[in-house]
């Protein structure tokens, strides 16, 4: 099986061959049509979305051939909002980005693409025993989506952007002896978000993700975005445009926590 990727020959339009769920009923990402999103106070009312992350004492970075990923080793928990009382454990974070600032995010907002999108991937530790156990369950995963826009540098992201040069080739891994607090990767406003039931945005595209996409973008500097674009993917090309375009909404409703 040719390895999936983002080129014409192995990109999102070809994934359905090996992963038929690509045309499923709850695929991600989606275009968020802001006027169609339904305000739902009890998504926020009952218990607000809350993160309780433990800062990483060292940072494990991996170029996995289609993104730059930071493996989380500490116990960090996401709960509340659409997740109710279930506690979702932070497993890893990674990003998607474009070759230029005008594209790169996976979710779009009224058709607008951001330059990049950061994903914090969590699994339901209240119901399942591991990420691998949870990854195929309909309530198994929760991913925080943070839009990235060019601007001032994000200090907490420096440990990743400053080390991309040492992670150029696919499969490269490194451990950086520095702390990282995932909370500081989030936008200042974490009350305003859209949420809907979706999937992994890369193969195997499992329909197991409760998506929470924050309205407020976070700024990364031009240099930080350039560092991502200089990574090399599993085909030996510059890792750029590693985003899946929006999938059909089908019979789903997007909820929002703000008016
Ligand atoms: N596609 C994924 N996350 S994402 N892009 O849907 O957040 N993953 C694949 C395996 C682990 C996470
Ligand atoms: Zn992702």
Automatic annotation (TrEMBL):
<protein>
    <recommendedName>
        <fullName>Carbonic anhydrase</fullName>
        <ecNumber>4.2.1.1</ecNumber>
    </recommendedName>
</protein>
<comment type="function">
    <text>Reversible hydration of carbon dioxide.</text>
</comment>
<keyword id="KW-0456">Lyase</keyword>
<keyword id="KW-1015">Disulfide bond</keyword>
<dbReference type="Pfam" id="PF00194">
    <property type="entry name" value="Carb_anhydrase"/>
</dbReference>
<feature type="domain" description="Alpha-carbonic anhydrase">
    <location>
        <begin position="2"/>
        <end position="258"/>
    </location>
</feature>
<keyword id="KW-0964">Secreted</keyword>
<dbReference type="InterPro" id="IPR001148">
    <property type="entry name" value="CA_dom"/>
</dbReference>
<keyword id="KW-0677">Repeat</keyword>
<keyword id="KW-0862">Zinc</keyword>
<dbReference type="InterPro" id="IPR018338">
    <property type="entry name" value="Carbonic_anhydrase_a-class_CS"/>
</dbReference>
<dbReference type="InterPro" id="IPR036398">
    <property type="entry name" value="CA_dom_sf"/>
</dbReference>
<dbReference type="InterPro" id="IPR023561">
    <property type="entry name" value="Carbonic_anhydrase_a-class"/>
</dbReference>
<keyword id="KW-0272">Extracellular matrix</keyword>
<comment type="similarity">
    <text>Belongs to the alpha-carbonic anhydrase family.</text>
</comment>
<keyword id="KW-0106">Calcium</keyword>
<keyword id="KW-0479">Metal-binding</keyword>
């Amino acid at each position: 099986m040719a390895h999936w990727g983002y080129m014409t020959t192995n990109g999102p339009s070809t994934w359905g061959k090996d992963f038929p769920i690509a045309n499923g009923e709850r695929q991600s990402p989606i275009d968020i049509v802001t006027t169609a999103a339904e305000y739902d106070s009890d998504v926020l009312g009952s218990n607000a979305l809350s993160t309780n992350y433990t800062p990483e004492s060292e940072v494990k970075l991996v170029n996995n051939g289609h993104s730059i990923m930071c493996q989380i080793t500490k116990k960090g928990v996401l709960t509340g909002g659409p997740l109710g009382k279930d506690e979702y454990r932070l497993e890893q974070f990674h990003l998607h980005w474009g070759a230029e600032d005008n594209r790169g995010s996976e979710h779009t907002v009224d058709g607008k693409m951001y330059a990049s999108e950061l994903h914090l991937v969590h699994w339901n530790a209240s119901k399942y025993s591991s990420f691998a156990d949870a990854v195929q369950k309909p309530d198994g995963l929760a991913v925080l989506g943070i839009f990235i826009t060019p601007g001032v540098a994000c200090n907490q992201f420096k440990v990743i952007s400053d080390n991309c040069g040492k992670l150029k080739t696919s499969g490269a891994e490194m451990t950086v002896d520095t702390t990282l607090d995932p909370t500081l990767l989030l936008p200042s406003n974490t009350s305003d978000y859209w949420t809907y039931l979706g999937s992994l945005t890369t193969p195997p595209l499992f329909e197991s993700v409760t998506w929470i996409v924050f309205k407020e973008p976070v700024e990364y500097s031009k240099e930080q975005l350039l560092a991502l674009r200089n990574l090399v993917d599993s085909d030996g090309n510059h890792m750029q445009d590693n985003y899946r375009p929006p999938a059909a909404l089908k019979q789903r409703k997007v909820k929002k926590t703000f008016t």
